[in-house]
């Protein structure tokens, strides 16, 4: 009888932990606005100084059946895509992900904004990490690892909830 209770308790604990992780992971759903880009040891504006004033870069995340999709407006075009989360630690609110190909409309714009859009898509497509901080800040990119150079603290996009 005690073995059955132990197995039942273990099963309950496993399901509860999975549900907590899933619930924390679902907190990334919603509308986000790119606030800045972290470049190893310094922050940059979303499009750098040369782009001047521009529309906000947005990221709208939704999920269905455990798969995440996104869309939004970049510096010039609308875009869309999907990503898969491979792991997510509900205590640190960090995880690993793989972003699929990004599709977009094909409007042309001023050179600095087109450069901004290319940079944004590049950082998003090559991202390997995702993190949620205080439910209002989403980070997507490549975070510092134990093998990183001491001055390399990662490169990632920083979004705030809309």
Word description of this protein:
- The protein is of the alpha+beta class and 162 residues long.
- Helix content is 25%, strand content 41%.
- It is built from two helices and ten strands, in the order αβββββββαβββ.
- Mean pLDDT is 85; it is low at 3-20.
Task: Give the gist of this structure.
The chain has 162 residues and is of the alpha+beta class.
Structural key phrases:
162 residues, alpha+beta, 10 strands, globular
SSE pattern, N- to C-terminal: HEEEEEEEHEEE
Number of helical stretches of at least 4 residues? 2
Average per-residue pLDDT, rounded, comes to 85
Give the CA-based shape. globular
- Gyration radius, rounded: 18 Å
SSE layout:
Blueprint: H1 2-26, E1 30-39, E2 43-44, E3 58-64, E4 67-73, E5 78-89, E6 94-99, E7 103-104, H2 111-125, E8 129-133, E9 137-143, E10 154-161
Antiparallel strand pairs: 1-2, 1-3, 1-10, 3-4, 4-5, 5-6, 5-7, 6-8, 8-9, 9-10
